[in-house]
Amino acid sequence: MATLEEDIQHHNSTDSGEGEEIVENGIDKDGNIEGEVVENNHKETEEEIAEDEHIFKPIHLKLAIQGVSGPTEITVYGQDLIEGLRQVLMENPLACFRTCIGFWHHGTRLDEVQDFSSIQGLKDGDTIRVSEDPYSLREAQIHVRRLEELLDSGLEMGTQSLSYLAHILPTDIDELATQAMVGEQQGNKPTIIEEQAIEPDYINPDPSRSSVPLSPLLPPRTSPLPSCIHTIHYSGWNPPPGPQRLKGDLLYLDVTTLEGFSYCITASPQGFYLNCSDKEHFDPTAHQDLGTRSHTLAGLLSQISPSFKKNIALHRKELQRRHSFEFIPTPFQVHCWLINPSRHSYNLVRAHDSLQGRLGHEEHTLGQLRDWNAELAGSRDLPRETVYNRMVRERAIYKVYTDFIEAATQGAQAVLDGNIPALNPTDDEKNFLFIWNNIFFSYPYDGRELYKNVGGDRAAYITAAKDIHGIAAIEELDVEGLHTLATALVDYRGHRVVAQSIVPGILQRDQENILEYGTLDGKKLSKNEKFAGLMRGVGQELNVKIEQVYDHEGRVQEMPSSVECKGIIGTDGRNYLIDLYRITPPDLNFDQYSEQDTSEKVGEKRVDIGHKMAMHRREIVESFIQYKYSTFIQKISKLTLEEQNKEVSEKKGLDSDLKDEEHKSQPEVALEQILEKDLSDIDKNPVLLLATKDDSFGGDTGEKEIGVDIKSETAGPMKNEEIISIVSPSNFEEGLECTNQLEVGVILPDDNGSVKLVLSEKNLNLTTDEKERTEDSTESEETNKLGQKKVMEILCNSLEGLGSISESDFDLRFNMDLTSHLCKLAGSSEVLEKDKKLCEELSEFIIHYSLPRFFIDCLQLQAMPVDSVSLTRLLHFRGINMRYLGRITELVSKREDLSHVKTICISDMIIRVAKRHIRREMGEAHLSEMPGVIVNAFNSLFGCVETPGVEEATGGKKKKSKKKNQRLKQENGTFTTQSMWTGIQSEMETYFGYKLDYRSFHSASEGVPFSKLSILRSLCMKLGVQLLAREYHLEGKGLPFAESDVINLHPVVKHFPPTLHLPQEIHKMASSRFGLGLVKECIELCLEALNHYQNIAGPNNIETVGCYKDLANLYLVTKDVLNSLNFQQKGTFILERNLGMDDPRTLTGLIGLATSCCNAGLSQLALKVLFRARYLLLVLFGEKHPQMATIDLNIGYTYHSVGENKRAVKYLENVIRLQDIFYGSQHVQTGMTRHLLSKAYSLAGEYRQAIQQEKQAYNTFKEKYGEDSEKTKVISAGLSDLTQKAVLFEKLQHATRKEIYDITGSSNGDTASKQN
Questions:
Q1: Which residues form the Clu domain (predicted)?
Q2: Does the reported pTM lie above 0.85?
Q3: Nearest-CA neighbor of 564 among 587, 547, 540?
Q4: pLDDT per residue as tens digits for the range 997-1013
């Protein structure tokens, strides 16, 4: 199987003869082993090459739309679907009302499900004609609904995804950038001429700020556009009677125009026309006096209503003004936690659609339900041999998956709202099962008591979350012949619902007898050999050990995965895996049921997470294996060198103990020393974290060092290429060149399949004398080469103590069922002890390596969490579970420059515990009581509630909550301020092992300190609560919330989108080209990856952001500022639409956009964007954050560049204050900022402060680089110049007119004084 790069570039080849290809990665579909040369039996003809070029080559076309003057020019690719032209029409204000259309090319009707490469004779410059198709009843209803949506979109902003950028960025940004660059070339300096470019008062630097206004979070409310029509709805004369149906009548509409006239409209296959009916008489004949037929409803209304024609033009103008990404739908819906309620208008069409949906009425739509499992499995079975095949396959998978998530979300809401009856209504409520739209819904409760001894309901809840991680891991492998179920977790109204596609035939068979692999309850173990063969390949990729277990008959079975992973063969013949929560080893640090004392592993305190299902993340397993492998390589190097030195010493009489002495003399740096280390020289002197022999994770290996590459952004130990080059023969020389850390050598297979070690000359473990001896030893081949027997002996000795299951190869596997309660392991005590020891080492690896590594990344500002979401993402990227938050908090509390991390950790623990308390209360409440429950909880946390019950924010009367169903009433009653805080403190100490010793939530917010607004935001997002956009006073006095503040509840969906392998691989190829300096080729690959992303997942999806960011940077390298700004703008729009307006990654995108605006000469626009970024950081965290120093530095520099130095000084002073905390007063970055601040002071006339800052900058550079450094000399020259100007300024301040003349040599003293 050829590599992706060969597939992409093969059409450039002109060789049509038979060739050979190298299988480089794994085993191909024909069973050929990695690295084996296989015959390529097919010939690439010129026609095939031309076809591939046609697929990936851009095609410039013209789109001729009927009724629109002039064609629309578009650019498509061969692999684009023809149906994508509909999106082009939706973005065209003159054609957006057309829904029933067709596309024609040279008189041939085009099939929209095909791509452009299927069009015969298509070439650049061709015209695609858009025709008006006849309506069906369904098409007519879609057309009416589309018109309603377009009319409503301009009237009021909805409650869903919003974009603030549209209110900052002008539509003619490209023209403004061009004018700015032309002016800069002519020598014009940018100036601030707009008041909007001056910062609002609420974002001014203020270290004592305690609150942030919420009104600027949402886009400003604009005046709604005028209505186009009074009412439009389905007529009471529907459905058409038999005779009229035969004449073509589809439906009737009643319309009332703004002029006050009422009409009845007939929808026919040819379009819409007026009939003569009214509310009392039915006359379907066409009206002869008013209007004519029109294919669109909007066209007919424009004929009969002048007001409609006038106002619809305003709507079209508004649509044309908007950026396309503002209204292009996103794959997955994003909800804002703070909203302005939309105006609820009278709309009978909307009412008809909402009440005639499929909820509870599946009998009306039989035959139209989608078989999600068949669609998804069929998409995965599509061919994947070529790039085009892979693109089509991944697009089909992504489309089915996004539709499934939308349907599953709707179904879960219907389940919890009581609109779908249970399949088993006589069972306990925990065991209720539901089916809607071919989706299976269930609650993650332990209804069958399978987890009774390992945590009960809490364990079942955890396994549901772990299951989607397992599904994601299996789908990432993309094993042919192995399928998983589409799965989503939906949290809504305090409950969690598991939504899954249905395995064919599972509902018609007994669940206990359909298992082909695994066990359901531990009583019966099944093992299908076909399944076992597939799982062996999966286990090899996931490092799962083949374990021996006893089955129900007492026989020993070898299972290549956990017995709790279940396999089912559906009636469609496909193999399905379910319950994939045990694909990673157990975390023995939190195994409270084990025989070991967990207090020694998670700090000095014992924690209780409430279940025995604590398992590691896949990321930490990969990091641990990388570390073990580096240890293996170092041991090989050590033993090989000892053997070589031994042979050399026998011939030359040299002492071979020199290396050990050098090794012993290497210094060790303990964690305590790092905690006290000054950050001023951290950029020049990277920190190495060294552990003692007792802390090593490789057993008795004798190795003391654990290398930590603090510059790397990876989660685990140093990458293989940083420690050792593991390369294939094709890139062997390149592999030796790329190492830059602890490079010890390269291991290569020889022709006999054995392994030999090729030492690198950069081996850091060698002293100078040893290198000389090694070079001398290469003079003779007999001395240099070790025998086959010695090589194997070295390998075996190196593998000792590493936990490898093989004695001659590095193969690390974990026993996933080590703590399973559903199986009995059959291995010997020695083997089980070895498995247990390996899991213990992995658990210790987190405590002694991953957590300190995260600490160092935070110390160096490589990891800068901003809120709970970003902290979770950073820790999960490093394989650290959130249950380690208590340990992390204790670690970061030891340094003042990590106070922001401590604040976020404590805030996150409070949020997680408070969420559990509130969800329990919400789960017991009826929907009508939900606002009262939420308000009571929020008031108890952020306000002051002394007695149980729900109180209104506007008065002192207490309103008891009357539950309609006494069975759902909670025993504890409602919250009070004291009970809420006591419960949070208690659970934090129990679950996280961290004691927050404050008497109240408000005293903790002042002592830690943390932002109450940030906690409110996170709670709303996790609970699915949308609040009214108004100012809330969270000072702990009174009742800040009322029931009217709770606007809506929305579902929170957890899922893993399908991996887009094809564009990701092309994007990685682009990164490798950039490393080689091939910028042009890198741009081409990034554009190709972007095109594949858009073809597979749509233009507005989060996957494209990486390409947009890279393209912006690449075009900046090539001095193409306009393209750089364009791509950065699109990337930021997508971040805002897909993640939310106040997501931390949106904030980062805003900073990048501001930089692009500055590069394009748009200083005013850059300031607006930076003000927005600063405000978001205040909402997410507050003032004291290292990211704030970056934002303020950019604001200060931009103000300085346009001559607003007094404003620049205000921000640069705040930068110095923050950099003194997070960098240190003597850091070079702080010195550079002081130099910039000195310039701003000087230009503002404040020479004393300027000299003071310049002196401190000079001392910093002098200490870092010495007096003779060019950098220091520049600062010194600036200091001398400032001193002279300050002396002159002082003289002029106190001089007479004659003295000024003598000093300046000018007769105009006033002018001279002003100039100085």
A1: 350-591
A2: no
A3: 547
A4: 899 999 999 999 999 99
